Amino acid sequence: MDSTRFILINTSHAGNVGATARAMKVMGFRELVLVAPRFPDVLCHEEAIAMASGAADILARARVVPTLAEALEGVDFACATAMTPRDFGPPVYRPRELFADLAARAPAPRLGLVFGSERYGMANEDVYRCHAVLSIPTHPDYGSLNLAQAVQLLSYDLRQALGGFAVQPRTPDPERADARAVQGLLDHLQTALVDIGYLDPAAPKKLMPRLNQLFNRAGLTNEEVHILRGMARQMSKTIRPQGSE
Questions:
Q1: Does domain 5-161 have CATH number 3.40.1280.10?
Q2: Helix axes 95-104, 147-161, angle to 10 degrees
Q3: Residue closest to 102 by CA, chosen among 218, 223, 34, 4
Q4: Tens place of pLDDT for every residue, the chain, 245 residues?
Q5: pTM of the entire structure?
Q6: Residue 39 near residue 147, CB atoms below 8 Å
Q7: Rounded to whole angstroms, how far apart are CA atoms 62 and 7?
Q8: Angle at CA of residue 12, ends 153 and 23, nearest 5°
């Protein structure tokens, strides 16, 4: 199912073709087939290439065929996309549930996802060629999706059914400052606060213990300690006469 074929019928807008290629590549799919697009040269159209945004290789490999029958050659299980269920035709499924079922089959079928025109969707005879209809759960009062948005949603659900991609590990947290480093900062900051007249050494109250608690909650890193000590140094330097340090 990694080789799932994405099939667009009678696509009107070149930008949607490019955006579809981008949506596919993001989820690791490669095969795109266009059935009788409005513009025969849509794959090399400037807007399509611009909207592909780095997925021009998908456009370069894509095929244009005249009929859906040709686009479905080699496909074992075809899924139509339709906004509303039909009175007659293949059964309707939620994408996530159907993809999980198909992925669990051995061997998994060669899948084809079929998308209709932006202007009028899929014709009934095209839907009848498919094994299932996929209905993306949307708000009941408004279920109109842009073509590329629909491709992105379905390709995401399909990729998740296939196991998904590993999340990139986060950059390790910088090293936390130890108690000695924090105490050195407090001593340095106390001197600076006295220099600028903010702290009265004769009546310090609980300013420094409160700052100590603040720094403990913040979990300062060594780099942050260096920054704060640099600020304290500059505060003292600004107040003291030149050469009195």
A1: yes
A2: 40
A3: 4
A4: 778 999 999 999 999 999 999 999 999 999 999 999 999 899 999 999 999 999 999 999 999 999 999 999 999 999 999 765 567 789 999 999 999 999 999 888 999 999 999 888 899 999 999 999 999 888 888 878 899 999 999 999 999 999 988 877 777 778 899 999 999 999 999 999 999 999 988 888 899 999 999 999 999 999 999 999 999 999 988 886 655 54
A5: 0.71
A6: no
A7: 10
A8: 25
Tell me which amino acid residue 92 is. V
The 3 state secondary structure assigned to 90-145 is CCEECHHHHHHHHHHCCCCCCEEEEECECCCECCHHHHHCCCEEECCCCECCECCC
Domain ranges of the chain: 5-161, 179-239
Q: How far is 29 from 162, CA to CA, in rounded Å?
A: 12
Which residues on neighbouring strands pair with residue 79, listed in sequence order?
Answer: 113, 132
What is the residue-wise DSSP string for 25-68? Answer: HHTT--EEEEES-SSTTGGG-HHHHHHHTT-HHHHHH-EEES-H
Closest CA to 48 of 66, 22, 9: 22
- Which SS3 state, helix, strand or coil, does residue 244 take? coil
Q: Strand order of the sheet with strand 63-65?
A: 63-65, 31-35, 5-9, 111-115, 77-81, 132-134, 92-93
**35-73 per-residue burial string, b: 16 or more CB within 10 A, e: under 16:** bbbebeebbebebbbebbeebbebbeebebeeebeebbe
d(CA 79, CA 135): 10
Are the C-beta atoms of 156 and 4 separated by less than 8 Å? no
- What fold characterizes domain 179-239? Helicase, Ruva Protein; domain 3 (1.10.8)
